[in-house]
Amino acid sequence: MKHVALIAKNHTNPAYGGALFGARAVAERFGYEVRHSAPQKPDDIDEQAALIAQAIATQPAAILLIPAHETRLTGTIRAINRAGIPLVSLVGEASEGE
Q1: What is the rounded radius of gyration, in angstroms, for the C-alpha atoms of the chain?
Q2: 73-89 pLDDT per residue, tens
Q3: Region at 86 (left for phi over 0; alpha for psi -120 to 50; beta for the rest)
Q4: Angstrom distances, CA of residue 17 to CA of 36, 85, 93
């Protein structure tokens, strides 16, 4: 099934549950599944980077990202850009990348 990846920075903020709810509502309308993930340790940058790398490997139609840090994910965001996967930044925005 076609899918988008929603990668939050934690499972503890209820606002991110709202983002997931909204993403699922829109994605389903267009025939997409949302695959959601977040670091087990809240706001862990290295774990979030690993989750992003895993998402890239599944070749989603897009990645919806709630970045754990504005600058420390730059290399990972560039990997998303190199893979040609559209990136939508939710809540926060990384300092570099497309």
Answers
A1: 12
A2: 999 999 999 999 999 99
A3: beta
A4: 10, 23, 18
